[in-house]
Design goal:
319 residues, alpha/beta, 8-stranded parallel beta barrel, globular, binds flavin mononucleotide
Length: 319
């Protein structure tokens, strides 16, 4: 059995358009959604329909909830429980200041009693798989991490994803994958590892290590074909048969098309800019293209920028 590959939850990125694009290339095993505000979901915010759109493969989608209020999170989990999905995940790892200030994300890790009480409240609300995604915590302290996670496990969490950086590290330092293995050895439930995977070989390398699933985020935005490419390498480790080339221009234009189809106009520009912030790293003049895209105010203008770039640099179309 292959170790599952998971798409990470990423605000403004892990939505239907990206999932459709990844599926075009062969897909991955599970797709976490971007974090969904529990408060906004239960009060029926105007864009919630887009956040809960689990297409094109609901059975492989894991909804991620974020919030600071246990009652709201429990009510949101009860709402999501009625939807077709692979599971519900609670965000205890986000270190964005706006989230932490509210008492959400990684802030939960500073209060183990409250975090355990949260799970006690959420668990009865759903029969779906309940998971938690977290960081190392305030410090890189294995004993503290294990104690925290054992409490979640005792309250009925079914699996944990660890992004092994402290709250303060954001994306600094490299992810400490040795903590993933050590955590897995200390828990009964499965542990997924996440952080800094750079290519298909990296995905396979982590999958061969001490973890139950491998999650990738930014890499999958830069290279939505990466999960399929890693699976092909796994089947053919000798490297026989070159992977089919990917057409970057077609991929970029396809993403714009999917964005227009599946996201509301209010979200188009923010989502497109986020996506191209990573995707343009495939291009020799990627920073220049990001600047041009950043000046556009509509998807049609972005399309023009991309067509012009690839028209002038046809050698960059295929990777
Ligand atoms: C733009 C962006 C948005 C993110 N949003 C979320 C989020 O909504 N929920 C969450 O748990 N983590 C979020 N993360 C963290 C990722 O899920 C992941 O843990 C992190 O990017 C490390 O993995 P990577 O090196 O494969 O990208 C976000 C990361 C990025 C870059």
């Amino acid at each position: 059995m292959s170790v599952p590959f998971l798409l990470a939850p990423m605000a403004e990125l892990s939505h239907r358009a990206l999932r459709e694009l990844i599926e075009d290339f062969g897909g991955c095993d599970e797709y976490f959604t971007e974090m969904i505000s529990a408060g906004a979901l239960i009060s029926g915010g105007p864009f919630e329909a887009y956040y809960v759109d689990a297409g094109p493969c609901p059975a492989r989608v894991v909804y991620q909830l974020a919030g600071a209020d246990p009652g709201q999170i429990a009510a949101a989990a009860a709402l999501l429980d009625r939807r077709d999905c692979a599971g519900i995940d609670l965000n205890m790892g986000c270190s964005a200041p706006a989230i932490v200030r509210l008492g959400a994300g990684v802030r939960w890790m500073a209060y183990p009693d409250k975090a355990a009480a949260l799970i006690r409240m959420v668990r009865p609300q759903t029969r779906k798989r309940l998971s938690v995604k977290l960081r190392l915590g305030m410090e890189a302290d294995l004993d503290g991490l294990v104690t925290f996670c054992r409490r979640l496990e005792d309250e009925g969490v079914d699996f944990i994803t660890l992004h092994p950086r402290t709250a303060r590290e954001k994306f600094r330092r490299t992810a400490r994958w040795d903590f993933v293995g050590a955590l897995k050895q200390s828990l009964r439930i499965p542990v997924a590892g996440n952080g800094d995977i750079a290519d298909a070989a990296g995905l396979l390398h982590r999958a061969a290590g001490d973890c139950d699933a491998v999650m990738a985020g930014r890499l999958a935005v830069r290279a939505p074909w990466i999960f399929a490419r890693a699976r092909a390498m796994e089947k053919e480790p000798s490297g026989k048969g070159e992977p089919p080339a990917v057409n970057l221009e077609e991929t970029a234009l396809r993403f714009l098309e999917l964005l227009a189809r599946y996201q509301p106009p209010e979200f188009h520009m923010s989502r497109a800019r986020r996506f191209f912030a990573y995707f343009c790293d495939n291009l020799v003049w990627g920073n220049y293209v990001k600047t041009l895209l950043g000046r556009e105010t509509a998807l049609a203008g972005m399309e023009c920028v991309l067509r012009t770039y690839f028209g002038e640099h046809p050698e960059e179309r295929l990777v």
